[in-house]
Amino acid sequence: MTQTxxxxxxxxxxxxxxxxxxxxxxxxxxxLIRVTTTTICGTDIHILKGEYPVERGRIVGHEPVGVIEExxxxxxxxxxxxxxxxxxxxxxxxxxxxxxxDWAQCGSKPMGGWRLGNTLDGCQAEYVRVPHAMxxxxxxxxxxxxxxxxxxxxxxxxxxxxxxxGHIRIGDTVAVFAQGPIxxxxxxxAKLCGASTIIGVDGIAARLEMATRFGADVxxxxxxxxxVQAILDLTNGRGVDVAIEALGAQSTFxxxxxxxxxxxxxxxxxxxxxxxxxPLEAFAAGLGDHKIATTLCPGxxxxxxxxxxxxxxxxxxxxxxxxxxxxxxxxxEAYELFSQQRDGVLKVAITP
Amino acid sequence: MTQTxxxxxxxxxxxxxxxxxxxxxxxxxxxLIRVTTTTICGTDIHILKGEYPVERGRIVGHEPVGVIEExxxxxxxxxxxxxxxxxxxxxxxxxxxxxxxDWAQCGSKPMGGWRLGNTLDGCQAEYVRVPHAMxxxxxxxxxxxxxxxxxxxxxxxxxxxxxxxGHIRIGDTVAVFAQGPIxxxxxxxAKLCGASTIIGVDGIAARLEMATRFGADVxxxxxxxxxVQAILDLTNGRGVDVAIEALGAQSTFxxxxxxxxxxxxxxxxxxxxxxxxxPLEAFAAGLGDHKIATTLCPGxxxxxxxxxxxxxxxxxxxxxxxxxxxxxxxxxEAYELFSQQRDGVLKVAITP
Amino acid sequence: MTQTxxxxxxxxxxxxxxxxxxxxxxxxxxxLIRVTTTTICGTDIHILKGEYPVERGRIVGHEPVGVIEExxxxxxxxxxxxxxxxxxxxxxxxxxxxxxxDWAQCGSKPMGGWRLGNTLDGCQAEYVRVPHAMxxxxxxxxxxxxxxxxxxxxxxxxxxxxxxxGHIRIGDTVAVFAQGPIxxxxxxxAKLCGASTIIGVDGIAARLEMATRFGADVxxxxxxxxxVQAILDLTNGRGVDVAIEALGAQSTFxxxxxxxxxxxxxxxxxxxxxxxxxPLEAFAAGLGDHKIATTLCPGxxxxxxxxxxxxxxxxxxxxxxxxxxxxxxxxxEAYELFSQQRDGVLKVAITP
Amino acid sequence: MTQTxxxxxxxxxxxxxxxxxxxxxxxxxxxLIRVTTTTICGTDIHILKGEYPVERGRIVGHEPVGVIEExxxxxxxxxxxxxxxxxxxxxxxxxxxxxxxDWAQCGSKPMGGWRLGNTLDGCQAEYVRVPHAMxxxxxxxxxxxxxxxxxxxxxxxxxxxxxxxGHIRIGDTVAVFAQGPIxxxxxxxAKLCGASTIIGVDGIAARLEMATRFGADVxxxxxxxxxVQAILDLTNGRGVDVAIEALGAQSTFxxxxxxxxxxxxxxxxxxxxxxxxxPLEAFAAGLGDHKIATTLCPGxxxxxxxxxxxxxxxxxxxxxxxxxxxxxxxxxEAYELFSQQRDGVLKVAITP
Lengths: 352, 352, 352, 352
What we know:
alpha/beta; Quinone Oxidoreductase, Chain A, domain 1; Rossmann fold; 25% strand
């Protein structure tokens, strides 16, 4: 085991570079994971662009698949050498928020459970220190490859939660606005929750084609059709039971409300910037019995166990989202491709 | 039974006048109620000012207490002469929305269940025709006076629903922004739901004093203190579990989010006009696991029965809200007082 | 339109016979349906055997597919000649129970919503009178045949509700005890709700084979293996999140608790007779945070609309359950086959 | 700090005696608490009688109020000398069950969260070692005495959970069978949840009198009246929305179902022994849409914080339940009194 490692580090806006770093020290309750596969998230691009603030020098990345290299004091029930994943959100399990089932808001701070690649060094590196290891290490079933489970830590957990927190029920009609990786997982999640009519909206034909494979019954290209009118037509003016926002923009948020039936739920996954305004007539001036739920990626080892079950039982093949593969040494190139959304990229796999 | 009656009619913006009208004809499934007491709602003031559109010539009013005068074909289980109340919202019980428990959105139209004084003639009159009588007539227990139950049709049903749809639980800390009649009922509802710290916010000392009587543990006068800072101080920076908006304004909506803990619920009762914008940092850019629930007054006879039970069992005395009394002949005067919010008026009782 | 019709009538225990009957008279709020297809339910067999009491002379059957023949006063929004289904449960929508969303317990009486073939004449006949037509007639989409939708009124609604009321979530492990028509629909419902490991238990190989087609990941034949031990082995001793009872027997009820994890839900669909005893150690003496939910078939036109959506969108093909076909004239023969469970019968289609 | 301490030890059936024991050693994640007040629970009497198995030599007691004496490695955010309470249930917060919000079933074992005085040494002693201290130590507000908070760890948490898990809503009618300490807390909890008619049932007049003080609107002495008939009369045959079982006996369980309306919830708090049989006609043979929820005392520091808030805000004064006081030296005497239920004892306070 070498004493230094390669890691992707946020240096300043528009610069994430590969650097040599000392190996993380493992403290009480921690685990050191040797990363075998990881990926880049849309949030990492926000960090890259300086839109989401992390401190300079922070190692980025929050979607680790790897092998236990070392266990700190107080960590039991695991073994060095075990293959594990760790959620993007690493709750402590023991604070007031966690004991109120608000694990993603660990420490009672907004997004407090998001530590890796945010308030602690992340996993776009050869090794990553995982805090609260007892609550966050999940062994990978032998028959699943790294790529099989690579989407569990964030994209799949988030997308599925969009369906779950929309309280989708058997027979619901659901619209999913934006069919990037999270929207695609929300589409798959809506199907798993029993939605019987799923309408996927995007502006890129390839993504809409994938939406159809993931469970969308109807795909609407907003470049060609007004999605609000099209959805109202499809539902005979009734609107949808649940609308999922998977982009983080005024237009999609607004359209969600415009197609939502009275009494329906807007399930919001997007990260908004700039301004977000309610379209009052679509919102029935506040009298439509509408619900809005926002969701940060659920984490913790029980969530990861459940998601891997879904994959193992072949209910959903998240590995389809991996379109490109890079070594860690090529990560700057990967960032370039992913931030430009070139070559039909959906998700990249990075192997240290 | 005379063949004409007096009724308060919306003539044009800023003019609601008492007119003579023919008695309503009772059709299939209808009941004719002789109104013994009714009241004026904040919504009626919006109608008066032309801010909420009803057609010219509409008899206004949606909070009837009265006596059954006549029952239409197909209405059984009631008797002429029975004292009854009818909710502000009169669901049919038989459409798709009603059969999905979205009674206030009856007919799958936004606010579709609100008929009286909106899409049908209302109850600021000597008589009112009640549609879907089987689903909407609730006998008044003998030991309750008209004023005891006068708030059930709207104010109390709405205010309590603000607490219920906030999913308030035992031990919660709750802030209620605005302590008008609905906010006061929301305060009382929060206490009934088990909130252990209730913070009432308003700018009028008399309303804050009443808030304290209705269950608020702390009363904050926003004329004197910054309510956001005061609430964060009171909760040691933690924020509240549930924030109830009971005004319908950008400032109160925004403040609700500013004092809401991650994972908390904003329960919105207000009717918004103009613009409504999300304060993105308070909204954690969409990542705070926040929920927003909007509520239109629940109606139907089962809701009314339950609310009258609350009054009968002396859990809450809604009659305290009646500060002024007028005959129907004086209703224009009552509108003047109520719309100006003079003389510390909270609610008026109108007796035809 | 003839003035008499043929109908299957309960005469006395072990005798349901075809008789001539006058056509039903349509009253206020009613519809007369000309039955085009119907079926026999397990409950009808209980009636036949005298185990479930209906009055002598009652026309049996509660699963109608047909065409509107006549509409009573007060019924609007439908047309004579329209193809419709009606749920086994026909709630009024306007009583206290219905307005509390307890539609199956209409009138606040246990099973009060079950009228057809129970407290009113049913649909194993050429015509059936449907009460509360406004709440209960659901038009059939043109592209669906009678057999496509024949399971919606009861079997599919009940089975799916077993999954829904078990609050199955994505990633759950679920056991379904008994794979008759209702258990098979519960299996399909569990899959639609996102269960990732579904274990079907029965003693008949053909049913287990069908369970696998309907979504079961594992099929256990209790004639060959102890299902409790097998399920505990499969789940590494953890037990299942939700266990569905679809038979109505002490042994299956008990086994559900024996395989249920602490905190899990037993969703009970069976109709029990004789004695039902809790296995206290499996019930953790009442300290296991277990939930038990019992369910009567949900009805009403919104439920029917949703179920037909599921079929139309090809999420589930309930028509596979129809194994035998008879004319109404042959209904006594159909009862004989179905009550004996001969020839691998699952469900029969009866066409007047 | 002495190196030995006095402790109440289960020796054999019918013998719990005071013994000298070495002080507990504090390990990783643990805290040592100097007990200042504790109490005896009904469960301890089951242990005493040999009805609930704990190993011989086990120090009993699971309701500690005390002062932090020592903190083990890995415990931060607390200080030696702080006054704290610890719930009867001490979840780890980090296992699969805890991360699924099933804290009482920690470790995915039935009752796995109940450690103190069960699988670990308890707190009827001068000192107690608290495992998973980060998740379980809750500072006591300065203005609350030991006796103010003494019921939080078990009786109040359990009783309130009976109301909460019954999903009591504003306007509900609720029956609570048995008005011992837990039933009384369930009665208080029902009131806090908004029940508008609460019916307390017991056979002891003094307890019924206290039930009335705790929120019961009606008190029924089953020695004088048939409680089932009385409740059906009170509710005009409708039955109650929620029935809470707070004894653990066939008769009360059965009566709960007999008074429960279709669609209602039986919330069970009792620990059952012997046989538990469903009364099938009251259970509507499984077709009444009844729910049964069983509950083990919720624990963890967030639960304790909330319960102390309820007391601090004077919503409920649990200290009223303390009827007798003993020193630890007198604990055998206290057990004798409490197990015989002499002198109107409700709860005893034990001070080491």
